[in-house]
Amino acid sequence: MKGDQHLITGAAVATFNVAMYEQIVTNWTNQPAVDLVINVKNFIIPQNIIVATIAILLFALGLLAPDCDSPKSTLGRFIYIPIEHRTWLHTAYIVITFAILGIFLRPFFLFAIGYFVHLLFDSPSKCGICWFNPSGYKHYSNGGKVKKGHVVILYFNDITAYILCAVVWIFVICYVLGVMDLVPSLETFVDGLDSKFESFVSLFIH
Hints:
Blueprint: H1 3-27, H2 31-44, H3 49-64, H4 92-104, H5 107-122, E1 137-139, E2 145-147, H6 158-179, H7 184-202
Antiparallel strand pairs: 1-2
Helix pairs in contact: 1-5, 1-6, 3-5, 4-5, 6-7
């Protein structure tokens, strides 16, 4: 995916999580789970408006940062790291590192989440990514590489990537409309989904 596509999908993920948060705190009856969700939200997005703004900007930066290994990418034009594309910068190691850093400097936790979302949407591309580089790629003589055993391909060029972006946003919009009780059929769908999710969570938190 390109930078704008990662920002589009990142915005969709953020919107979905805001809607899901509202659904949980409004409708769930499992109070310990609700309290946990509220505490996690307050940890990830601090109440301090300045710190929260920095955290949101770092989330956007995290959506773009993995492609700093490409000089033509949105962020790579300004900050270029000259290593092979989709290798070390496209790994779980960096997500884990910044998530740990975020425990002490909370805004970096959203950077880690943005980074994770980037990798998540790069995974179903034509060549996939190897979350735990250097193992996992099959290299070809023309310089190309594909993740070994890669079978889940949702897009393979710009057009299909934008189609995926549209599908993700259609799902998110439908979910938001259901949460807001604006469309009865979607409200029923969201409530059913929400009930199953709460039942699953209640197996571990009660």
